[in-house]
Design a protein that fits this description.
By secondary structure, the protein is of the alpha/beta class. It has eleven helices and nine strands. Helix 6 packs parallel to helix 9 and helix 10 packs antiparallel against helix 11. The chain is elongated. The N terminus is likely disordered.
Length: about 325
């Protein structure tokens, strides 16, 4: 699914301002309970601007800042700007998102970072699309407003991970790591968040793909951080954690394919070791390298065990997926 565009260019970066909301859409936003949830860790330099931006874009929304053990004046500044303060003591964005989804009650949830890199002006349009098209998630795909806003290394890593997810789970997203998202109540209250860090966005994406939920993308500008604000993302460490999350979720959600691949590797190695022994045995009637023969036999047994495990776990996974679907359906949809 490609990112949707509006009608007028903005900032000269290829992103376009969403169309002016019609009175009906504005009325829809006003009569629904909307929550803006902002996970924060040491964002005292930018959080006031973020809070004011969302209060202007969504006047009827409640703005929640979830502080994650900040050591600067994030809480004081956010509170002075008019945000409701909540705290999560377990360190990591995944822990914060799990707490946000558990504690906040709303019809629509806007999630954005507190570093002022995402444009609050797009929130109303994203929320209106969520209601009008009865979607469960709208992702703000990032279009950098300046080269320094989105370093080439981060951009390459995002493309690589997005490509991996697209090939393993389905090609419906062009930016799986975006932190600017809008969710329905159904999505939030049926999402079993298991991540602890920045891999939470990957888990959110794969959850939507696995349950075949209705989603959309909106291209939004991605801005440079304000002076004094620093990124909490550790490029290589968090990148490896995201890769690990993709592998673990693939094992959990596609066990037959995963364990069949493992079985194939075992068989391939067993054949490479065993075929020369079989040829020698046919010619001479002897098995000269018995340890190798035992190893090849063991690999074949492991291959069979892996294949059978995949079959069994595939049945279990189908049952788990059905339970998640039922949990999703148990939450009544919000009226458009």
């Amino acid at each position: 699914m490609k990112a949707d565009m509006g009608v007028a260019p903005k900032d000269g970066v290829g992103t376009q301002v969403p169309e002016q909301l019609d009175p009906g859409a504005t009325h829809t936003l006003e009569r629904h309970k909307i929550a803006v949830t902002i996970p924060c860790f040491n964002e005292g330099h930018s959080i006031a601007e973020v809070v004011r931006g969302f209060k202007s874009a969504l006047p009827s929304a409640r703005i929640y800042v979830f502080d994650n053990n900040s050591t600067d004046d994030t809480v004081v500044v956010a509170s002075a700007a008019g945000a409701l303060i909540r705290r999560e003591m377990l360190q990591g964005k995944g822990h914060v998102v799990r707490r946000m989804f558990a504690d906040v009650d709303a019809d629509a949830y806007v999630m954005a970072d507190g570093d002022s890199t995402y444009d609050p002006g797009y929130a109303a349009y994203m929320v209106s699309r969520l209601f009008e098209e009865r979607l469960d998630m709208v992702v703000g795909t990032r279009v950098p407003s300046h080269a320094a806003a989105y370093p080439p290394g981060h951009r390459f890593g995002n493309r690589l991970l997005t490509f991996a997810v697209a090939n393993l789970f389905g090609e419906r997203f062009s930016d799986i790591l975006s932190g600017y998202r809008v969710f329905s109540r159904r999505f939030v209250k049926s999402f079993p968040a298991m991540s602890s860090g920045f891999e939470i966005e990957t888990e959110l994406t794969i959850h939507a793909l696995e349950l075949h939920l209705p989603v959309a993308e909106v291209a939004t500008p991605y801005r440079i951080r304000v002076t004094g604000s620093t990124s909490k993302l550790r490029t290589y460490v968090d990148g490896l954690r995201i890769v690990r999350m993709i592998v673990v979720l693939y094992k959990n959600e596609r066990p037959f394919q995963f364990f069949s691949a493992v079985a194939g590797v075992f068989v391939a190695v067993a054949l490479a070791l065993g075929i020369p022994l079989v040829i020698t045995f046919i010619k001479t009637g002897l098995v000269p390298r018995q340890p190798t023969a035992i190893l090849a036999t063991g690999l074949v047994l492991l291959s069979a065990l892996s294949f059978v495990s995949g079959l069994i776990l595939d049945t279990v996974t189908r049952g788990r997926r059905e339970m998640r679907r039922l949990a999703y359906l148990a939450v009544p949809p919000s009226d458009p």
